[in-house]
Amino acid sequence: MGGIYEKYSPRFTPPPQYTDCVLEDSLILIVPCFNEAGNLQRFLSQARDEIMRIRNDINPRLQAQILFIDDGSEDETLCILRALCANDKSLHYIAFSRNFGKEAAIFAGLQYAKESDCGVCALLDADLQHPLGLLPQMYSEIFTNQLDCVYAVRKNREGEGFVKSALSKSFYKINNLLSSTKLVQNSTDYRCFNAKYLSALCACDEYHRFSKGLFEWVGFRNQAIEYENITRQDGVSSWSNTKLFSYALSAITSFSIAPLRFVALLGFVVSILGIIYAFYIVCMAVFYDTKVAGYPSIMCAIVVFGGLNLSALGIIGEYIGRSYEQSKRRPHFIIAESL
User: Fold this and answer.
1) Among 90, 253, 314, 326, who pairs with 207 as Cys (CB 3.0-4.6 Å)?
2) Which residue has the higher pLDDT, 177 or 19?
3) What is the DSSP pairing of strand 222-227 with strand 63-70?
4) What is the pLDDT of residue 33?
5) What are the boundaries of each domain within the chain?
């Protein structure tokens, strides 16, 4: 079918098709890792326990795999993954050539799962802040109740600093104000979903990915499960304030053109005000023979319009820059090794 589309309409990409060829009793855990050497053993132990619970209580035919994606870790993460996966056929890993970011790691895991024709996927972090105890409940909703996606939502943000928590709340409010794709407050990447949902996610091939937005954008039947926030047991978070700001900017530019419309509206309003002021100056000069001070007015106008122009160029440039990076069609990641 792809050949026909390419022949008669090279710019049209057919929508993703879900087929019945998936292995319904298969489960793949997608686990992005970055400097998680101190957590991998505990994570694997807990994951195996929960997989056994699923097999005993929900689906005795379950065939589970765990896929670790090493996002260019600088500690012993890759060495530990090599040792863990060497003698266990249910464990696999993908190692990037450098740090490409969590979004790239998630996308690599999604592509692997789709190529493996898995029936159900689970996406979670290796730092144990996503409670593995929720996994059987999530899987049950997918396998038994035929939901498409079940995701985890934090009840609170205990353990985080006040500034980070406040900025996070502000981001959700601003994003939901600007974008038609609404995000659930305190939602996480931790989720379990079926093959239809997976196929739709893999069809979204943008270079600057914002998975939380894509999760909402693709739709389907979703259900949230709340949990208490868990503090990190080992290591430190790789998400600095700078990275979080860049991530928030990526979210807004990926799912909203409201900033561009705001710039256009602001320019229109400033132009109207300029016309009104010019009319005022003419009236004062013609009817009242009053001279309006020129230097202060000109300086204020230069400063205001200069700032507005730079802000507008910055916003427009952000969108153009992302389009430029998308047009280069570079791969989302480069795999150094895998097993």
Assistant:
1) 326
2) 177
3) unpaired
4) 92
5) 2-237, 258-327
